[in-house]
Structures are given as structure tokens and as C-alpha cells.
Amino acid sequence: MKAVVVLSGGQDSATALAMCVSRHGADRVAAITFGYGQSHALEMKYARALARRFAISRHKVLRMGFMQDISESALFRRGSRISRRPGAKCPNTVVEGRNAFFLLAASVWAKTLGAGEVWIGVSEADFSGYPDCREGFLRSMERSVRLALDYGVKFVAPFMHKTKAEEWRIAERLGVLDIVEKETLTCYRGVPGRGCGKCPACRLRRRGYEEFLAARQ
Ligand SMILES: [Zn+2]
Questions:
Q1: How far is the CA of 199 from the centre of ligand 1 (A)?
Q2: Where do the structural domains in the chain lie, given as residue ranges?
Q3: 92 C-alpha to center of ligand 1: Å?
Q4: How far, in Å, is the centroid of ligand 1 from the Cα of 128?
Q5: How far is the CA of 209 from the centre of ligand 1 (A)?
Q6: For FRET with 36, which of 69, 95, 97, 126 sits at 20 to 30 Å CA-CA?
Q7: What does the alpha-carbon distance between residue 199 and residue 201 come to, in Å, rounded to a whole number?
Q8: Are 183 and 49 spatial neighbours (Cβ–Cβ below 8 Å)?
């Protein structure tokens, strides 16, 4: 095994998985999905289908329900209103420490499998203010995990400095545009594919897609 990809079932992680598979081959890539009480457990269904689509035989779904016991997020409850408190750095869709938990668990599995890379589809460019999507956090976490495990794992975040439009372009180049467009779930309200069109995740995705189409003409 070469890499473990954190696979949420959305646009970013699906495109990251496609990139990783094109680099290493499906039989050398594993995927891990986390259930942390998303109101739309549908995400996990999409992640499973994507793993099958990309012929990933080693796909693990890990339950992290404890995150709901220690924090609050609009993503934990179906139908929650998405908002940003005045002065808050990020909207109430933030799941505190999510990527830190994900990266540690994915790295532990990577070590078990003998894989040297952990891939994650986070981006600093289309930043919602989530602190654990930033490059500074990622590199610091990488150092900590190497020390914690005494294992030279490398974190690969191919979209860290890419916009959604650039991500769509990569998907097209890899020949997976259709899969990413129709078989992923990014919407906060749990509407697959193009989504509800209204929530912040859908608006970001749509804007990126339109930019991508405009640049293609
Ligand atoms: Zn939506």
C-alpha cells in the first residue's frame, strides 16, 4: 500500500482519490471514511459507492460518534440553520478538530498498512475559516503524527492552494468529471450531485463549476 485517502464522499475527496489512484494505481490505495454524526449519513453511502467506483478494495468506515458528545455543530443535526455568529471566525458548520482526528486515525491505519502517504482534500484557497484546513496546521500535525507514531508518514493535500474551479479542471483532466459532478455529495442539506443550490457548500461548488466552464470556452 502506498497511500490512505480520507474520503468523505464530496467533490474534494473524490477528486483527491482520483488523483491518488492515477498516481499509484487502485490496488495500492486505501480509503477511510469517518462517521462523526453527520446529519446526512448519506455521505457515507456516497463514500462507499465512490470507493467501489475507483476499485478500492481496502475501504474502511470508522465511527467517531464521540465527537458529538464533546462539541456542537450544525452538521450534527438534520435541518439545522447554517449561520455565522457576528464576529465568529467560521460558520456553525465547523466540526471542531475534525481534521486532526481524521489525520491521526488515517495515519495509524497507514502505518498498519505500510503506506507512506495520507491524502486529504482540504483547501486553504476557498477558505471558510476552518482552522484545521490550513497549511500551517497540516504541516504541524504531520510533524506531531510522525513523532507520535515514530513513522515517516507524509500528508498530501493536493488542493491546499487550489480553487474549486481548478479542482474541476483536474477532475476533467483525469477523466472523472462526470463521476465528481454526479456521484458525490457536498451539500450541507444532503442533496446529492448538484445539491440544493442554496447552502454555502453548494454555492461554493456551483461558483467554482461556473468559473471552470467559463475558463474552458
Ligand atoms: Zn446544498
A1: 4
A2: 3-216
A3: 15
A4: 15
A5: 14
A6: 126
A7: 6
A8: yes
How many A from CA of 200 to the centre of ligand 1? Answer: 7
Q: Among residues of the chain, what percentage have pLDDT more than 70?
A: 97
CA of 20 to the centre of ligand 1 (A): 27
71 C-alpha vs ligand 1 centroid, how far in Å? 23
- Architecture of the CATH domain 3-216: 3-Layer(aba) Sandwich (3.40)
The contacts of residue 44 (CB under 8 Å, 6+ apart) are: 9, 33, 35, 38, 61
Per this entry, what is the length of the chain? 217
pLDDT digits (tens, 9 = 90+) for 16-56: 999 999 999 999 999 999 988 766 678 889 999 999 999 99
40 CA to centre of own chain: 15
Cβ count within 10 A of residue 216: 10
Give the SS3 label for residue 71. coil
- CA–centroid distance, residue 155 to ligand 1 (Å): 29
pTM of the model: 0.92
User: Has residue 154 got a pLDDT over 90?
Assistant: yes
Find the 75 Cα to ligand 1 centroid distance in Å: 12
